[in-house]
Amino acid sequence: MQNKVANKNIIITGASSGIGERIAWHIAENGGVPIMLARSIDKLEKQQKLMEKELNAKSFAYKVNLQNSSEIDSVIEGILLKHEKIDGLINNAGTGMFAYVNDMAWPDVEGMFQLNVLALMRTTKLMLPHFLDNEEAHIINIASQAGKISTPKTAAYAATKHAVLGFTNALRLEIKQEKIHVTTVNLGPVRTNFFKEADPNGTYQKNVDRYMLDPDMVAAKIVQHLFTNKREINLPYWMELGSKLYHLFPQLMERLLKKQFDQK
């Protein structure tokens, strides 16, 4: 199969750990150039050195707090000045918080929307004029299966992922005549440090441990579909089937899956 990633400059947000880190590595392994964004510049620079040592791969690291709009603007402007051409954007950065609506801390809700939704939209909007001038580009937004099925304690988190799905689907329709691929990635639970904040007592992780996706496998699947017309990547497959059934028979599925829905 032709390697579509080689020599492509691809921005990855939230690239210092978890899925974002593994995406960066898979891009580098395929001859692409990961442009890594995260708050932890130390972790990014360590990855840079490892990529150069183990893969002889070029990469770039930029420190940014994506919950700060002015920092987003400044970093994206700097990237566009430094790099003649950017070929892809993977909006991976995100955070979560599991709590009943009555117990939600409002600063946590606002922070989650700023990172999961507004930063993703802002970064995409800033990059879009550049992509429209390219021969080909790809925008990948990491959403969640929670954006398709809301469960107890995920009201705010699921709302952010609903927003990501809505934004991405509308964007795809708006630029369908352009050579810009737009993909949504909808994931079930992935074995990353995401749950340190979302589920600090470990209840959900313990209940779904056997279902957790491997971040390296997820990253490989995403990179495999870079610069292809893939509308959605849905993992695990059985969860996507469940979401389709849920939309057809919501009341029935809520009764049948009550135990699964209450695992948080």
TrEMBL record:
SUPFAM superfamilies: NAD(P)-binding Rossmann-fold domains (SSF51735). Pfam families: adh_short (PF00106). Keywords: Oxidoreductase. It comes from Virgibacillus profundi. InterPro entries: NAD(P)-bd_dom_sf (IPR036291), Sc_DH/Rdtase_CS (IPR020904), SDR_fam (IPR002347). One of its GO terms (molecular function) is oxidoreductase activity. It comes from the Bacteria. This is Oxidoreductase. One of its GO terms (cellular component) is membrane. Belongs to the short-chain dehydrogenases/reductases (SDR) family.
